[in-house]
Design goal:
The chain is mainly beta. The protein is 12% helix and 38% strand.
Length: 165
């Protein structure tokens, strides 16, 4: 099976986490052609790098198809893929199918931890109603098992055995 990596995002700081009632921060999001993933740690330069031991969200994935549906449903043709604050935007795979599975994209290996559930901030970052629209399609939180450099482009996606989440 093939998967296409269409965007790679890194953000040095939290815009929303811990900000209830305070408004968002503006740390920005960098759209990169490649990122360095470190097994057990995350993406070099990202806000969740070395966040905590065995963190379930060392990297987050988001569906490019879901992104397209949000833009269409909410009439947001100029909405940037970075608004969802997920690290890797992909096409060609149902991310929900990767929860609880070990998988490889090229030479890199991951375990799918859980859905990257949308929160109420999606309504501010995108548009009112987006949080509800994304229920069950918020993306994938994953651990990095074998790190390396990931770039944009098309890769082989290989599925392995089921794993504990």
């Amino acid at each position: 099976m093939k998967v296409e990596v269409v965007h790679l995002f890194v953000s040095p700081g939290h815009d929303f986490k811990g900000r209830h009632g305070k408004g968002r921060e503006e740390h920005g999001v960098e759209d990169r052609e490649e990122v360095e993933l470190v097994a057990g740690s995350g993406i070099v330069g990202d806000r969740y790098f070395d966040h905590q031991p065995d963190f379930k969200g060392q990297v987050t994935f988001f569906s490019g198809d879901v992104y397209d549906r949000v833009r269409q449903e909410f009439e947001l043709p100029d909405l940037e893929a970075s608004a969802f604050r997920r690290n890797v935007v992909v096409r060609g795979v149902d991310l929900n199918d990767l929860v609880g599975k070990r998988f490889a994209i090229g030479e890199l290996e991951f375990t799918g931890s859980e859905e990257a559930a949308p929160c109420y901030w999606m309504d501010e970052a995108c548009a009112p109603g987006v949080e509800e629209f994304l229920q069950g399609n918020g993306g994938l939180r994953a651990r990095i098992v074998q790190g390396g450099t990931l770039g944009t482009g098309e890769f082989d996606l290989e599925l392995f055995e089921e794993v504990e989440r």
